Amino acid sequence: MNNLLQKAIVGLLQLMIGIGFMLFVPAWTFDFWQAWVYVFVFSTSVVLIFFYLYNKDPKLLERRLQRTEKEKNQKLIQFYIYVTYIGIFILSSLDHRFCWSNVPFIAVMTGDVLLALGYFIIFVVLKENTFAASIIEMTPEHKVISAGPYIYIRHPMYFGAIIIVLGTPLALGSWWGLLLFFLMVFIIVWRLLEEENFLSQNLSGYKEYCQKVKHRLVPFIW
Q1: In this predicted structure, what is the pLDDT of residue 9?
Q2: How far is Cα 212 from Cα 152, in angstroms, rounded to an integer?
Q3: Contacts of 214 (CB under 8 A, 6+ apart)
Q4: What's the CATH number where 78 sits?
Q5: Which of 44, 94, 144, 186 could disulfide-link to 205, CB 3.0 to 4.6 Å?
Q6: Are 142 and 135 contacting, i.e. CB atoms less than 8 angstroms apart?
Q7: What's the rounded Cα separation, in Å, for the pair 69 and 80?
Q8: What is the mean pLDDT of the chain?
Q9: Predicted confidence band at 181 (pLDDT cuts at 50, 70, 90)?
Q10: Is 57 inside a domain boundary?
């Protein structure tokens, strides 16, 4: 087994164990069918993306496995993203434990559909953009990507991430978890504005791309 595949598998296992821990420990039960469905949809989506990248774009997979930001502001934003995302899981699981919400079955299923849709959008982005690393960085061969979903908005991956964050508390049967969704949107917007500033200063042609594609996150709106 080569080093990249080993790192990818270890990363996947750590991620799944972490998700399971954050779901079932605060809920203090395995009798949490919404969480089991969530884990299935999440795991299937992530595994398919990882193995696609391993077979088709291993350099991008390697970039996706790098988690530590280099810029001070991005390190701070990354910390807030992690804390808020963990908070969504824990709050939603506590919601299940103490029965704070009564989310109908159709809303839970809608959350799972949103989760799968968000990961599909991310897959399309990764397929189009081989420079879509997990951290904001520049590589010698870096260039502006203006095809695929980048025709419509500048940050389609963040759009997919927002859909995932919206779907997560719904899929876990929690209305209260949605409160942290709005905080996460604010943090993602903060991150993408910082990223645009970095790319405008360091990536040739990015300013021209921004003039061509007016909308950052939501087509025809912003």
Answers
A1: 87
A2: 10
A3: none
A4: 1.20.120.1630
A5: 144
A6: no
A7: 13
A8: 91
A9: very high
A10: yes
